[in-house]
Write a structure and sequence with these properties.
globular; eight-stranded parallel beta barrel; binds ligand PBG; alpha/beta; TIM Barrel
């Protein structure tokens, strides 16, 4: 048997020791709580799309919309009013702009760059995070370029560096490489530094699993048709592995990552915990589209209490060791936290 946590207390504990005593009253539960969720923990992903006057529903993500750029200002003002610290942009690129090399990713006037400029004009204080990967821009739906039938790591890196640079030039605060190519963090850091962007941060999707939980997101950005039934297994991590995750984190930190992401979130709480214990660096979970849609779907069916299930799903990340969470529930949660009197 395992050694008791504290021998002194474990002998003849009951009835002197009653765990329920601290739980009896709300004031006491507040005093003993080990973790808390605050608005400062939230990052909100925003989908943007081409065209005008659009606020489109996303079928697989009830309650989440794609905004055309002319409708973005209102959304930025709303998120700012909630005091959410940062947003992350994800573009739905027009099909005719998708190519095998994903060159729209390096167009200085692409959707993401325009969105950054709009957001910075509306509220310069709102942090902006941008994905670096080619999947919204490639006609095959992969995160990198294909050469001789495989995703070519080093050719992809050249484009990713350029993509990072134009996003930084447009005003992005945090570059978030989500492509899982080897060596990208170091080269992106060098590119940013050489061009004077020494204070643009890198939040690396260091641990990104090849997950079925991204399904609804691929609908949202319109890449599921392009990707079809092909897999991202040659670059995203195998859900069977955990030591490998620590190695990925170590490499990205050595290459200059300021913050790291574990993605998806809920099925990988063990990984988050290990990362935090081992590296003590700012660690974020991405509660991805599939997690959102599962929870929201059951709420809409009346199977879960909305507020309780959402807060429970998010406090789990804090307990596991996260500094913050990228979540589609951010505005819902911020509304409630901001209206609490305590
Ligand atoms: C693109 C990217 C994906 C997500 C964020 N960035 C999908 C993927 O890798 O296929 C998923 C986010 C979500 O599911 O909410 N590289």
């Amino acid at each position: 048997m395992k050694e008791p946590h504290n021998k002194l207390f474990s002998i003849n504990s009951y009835p002197r020791v009653r765990m329920r005593r601290n739980r009896m009253h709300e004031f006491s539960r507040r005093l003993v709580s080990e973790n808390n969720l605050t608005v400062d923990d939230l990052i909100y992903p925003i989908f943007i799309t081409y065209g005008l006057n659009k606020k489109e529903k996303i079928n697989s993500m009830p309650g989440i919309y794609r905004f055309s750029l002319d409708r973005l200002e209102t959304e930025i003002k709303y998120i700012s009013s909630l005091n959410i610290p940062a947003i992350a942009f994800f573009p739905q690129t027009e099909n005719k702009l998708k190519t095998s090399d994903g060159r729209e990713a390096v167009n200085k006037n692409n959707l993401v760059c325009e969105a950054i400029r709009i957001s910075k004009k509306v509220n310069p204080e709102l942090g902006i995070i941008c994905d670096v990967a080619l999947d919204p821009y490639t006609d095959h739906g992969h995160d990198g370029v294909i050469i001789d039938n495989h995703i070519d790591n080093d050719k992809t890196l050249e484009i990713l560096c350029q993509q990072s640079l134009i996003q930084a030039e447009a005003g992005c605060n945090i570059i978030a490489p989500s492509d899982m190519m080897d060596g990208r963090v170091g080269l992106i850091r060098d590119t940013l530094d050489k061009n004077g962007f020494i204070n643009v941060q890198i939040m690396s999707y260091a641990v990104k699993y090849a997950s079925a939980f991204y399904g609804p997101f691929r609908d949202a950005v319109g890449s599921s048709i392009n990707l079809s039934n092909k897999s991202k297994n040659s670059y995203q991590m195998d859900p069977k592995n955990s030591d490998e995750a620590l190695r990925e984190i170590e490499l990205d930190l050595n290459e200059g990552a300021d913050m790291v992401i574990v993605k998806p979130g809920m099925p990988y709480l063990d990984i988050i915990h290990k990362v935090r214990e081992n590296f003590k660096v700012p660690t974020y979970a991405y509660q991805v589209s599939g997690e959102y849609s599962m929870i929201k779907g059951a709420i809409d069916k009346g199977w879960f209490d909305e507020e309780k299930i959402i807060f429970e799903s998010l406090i789990a990340f804090k307990r596991a060791g996260c500094s913050g969470i990228i979540t589609y529930f951010a505005p819902y949660v911020a509304e409630i936290l901001n209206n609490r009197k305590i």
